[in-house]
Amino acid sequence: MPLTGWWPRAQPVAGAPGVRRLAVGPQEWTQVAEAVAAGGGVLHALWVNGTPAEGAQVYAVYLCAPGALAVELTLAAGDARPYPGLQGRFPAASRLQRAAFELTGVRSSDADRRAWLVHADPYPFTRVDGEGVHEIAVGPVHAGTIEPGHFRFSVVGEKVLRLEAHLGYVHRGLERRFTALPILAGHRLAARVSGDSAVAFSWAYCQALEGLAGATIPPRAAWLRAVCLELERLANHLGDLGALGNDAGFAFGLTQFSRLKEDVLRATAAAFGQRYLFDVLVPGGLSVDLAGDGARALADAIRGACAESAELRTIYDEHEGVRARFSGTGRLGPALAAQLGVLGLVGRASGQGRDARLDLPCLPYTELPVAKVVLHDGDVAARVAVRFEEVQECGRLLRQLLSKVPDGPCTAVLEEPADGAFGIGLIEGWRGPVLVALQAGPAGTVRFCHPHDPSWQNWPALEYAILGNIVPDFPLINKSFNLSYSGVDL
Q1: CA 270 – CA 306 distance, rounded (Å)
Q2: What tens digit of pLDDT does each residue of 70-91 get?
Q3: What is the DSSP string of 358-412?
Q4: Which CATH superfamily is domain 174-455+468-476 in?
Q5: Is the dihedral of CA 272, 274, 276, 281 positive or negative?
Q6: What 3-state DSSP class applies to 91?
Q7: Closest Cα to residue 442, out of 419, 416, 474, 473?
Q8: Most buried in the list 14, 280, 281, 324, measured by CB within 10 Å?
């Protein structure tokens, strides 16, 4: 049955527009996955709520042509049989299923039995045998201030034959922690799932919660949330462009883009009281309104960042050394990117044209169309070019947002949602689509909450992008992806 045959059975989900929920049995679970794959859809998230002893629900969220489909498979209490695994159709499911098993004890039929979050024993990396092949272990502790992750290279000389990553070193028990918080306070923890995506995660949480509560936020709040989201996107892109220049041996790029990012962060603080907006988005709207002087500071910083970024792009493009390091390095072709289900800016650099601001728009993006930036070369140069283009698009969107912010209140009072109410928030963060699934418990508690970062989909793709490249290019390729560790370790 094609996916269109399943879609009418699905029920709308509270929260993000265009999301539906479908309850299935084990056979239908597999059939829906096959229909999504045949239609070119991708697996966005997978998690488990419950245990084999008490019964569990397995959820898979797909991004597909009609919208987003959340498929729910219920396992009876005491049923320890594995549920049908999805990694044969969606490679990203492998690590999602492994993490879900270690957290809940619910296993998939195709489970990789190596530990993912448990680090008590040496991790059995896959070995590559052959004459002249040797291994290079990098991490989990790194020389810089980045998060921990273990990367095992199999190489001949400096040419990479295989890369396997092992993460999970910053697991914090976030899903359990959400259940200890009042549901009206969970947005603060959501903002700290991955610090560089604070706005995206807190908005996704609030979107789900507001849907559960049947609340409509004031129009001014919606527009200002978009201002915050685009500022987060702009600041991250500016920082990445500087770091990528530095990794290519062009320190001038780092100094210039660091200065531009600092200008944007200072203007953000003047406008909203925080450089990084961890506590600005709250259930019902925003905790602070946009200050008049702050709006002018934002406009000046945005104008300067976009103008200078355009000049710096010319310098990057014309610099022979930078061009040589970027072009052809870390290539991830469109066909492989589609097979792996790559999302976000990495996907758009490899021909995958998904952007939730356009595909599943909420206010104000329903009134403010976004120009989607899609390239096809899939190398470091393409991922850099996507960032340069999105800097300019951020500037255009922010100028329109700031000029059209409606008057009125910026927050509304929310009532506690009913016990058992379920909702999903879905927001296109700077890295890609961020999801938060939320179910209310009794008396204003959280029954469960699952946050999902698009890095889950993109980490496996990094292992392919490095193949055939030399070991010294890994920092550059890795930075061009710039994936979250904490966002997947949870």
Answers
A1: 19
A2: 999 999 999 989 999 999 999 9
A3: HHS--TTTTSS-------S--SHHHHHHHHHHHHHHHHHHHHHHHHHPPPS-SB-
A4: Cytochrome-c3 Hydrogenase, chain B (1.10.645.10)
A5: negative
A6: coil
A7: 419
A8: 281
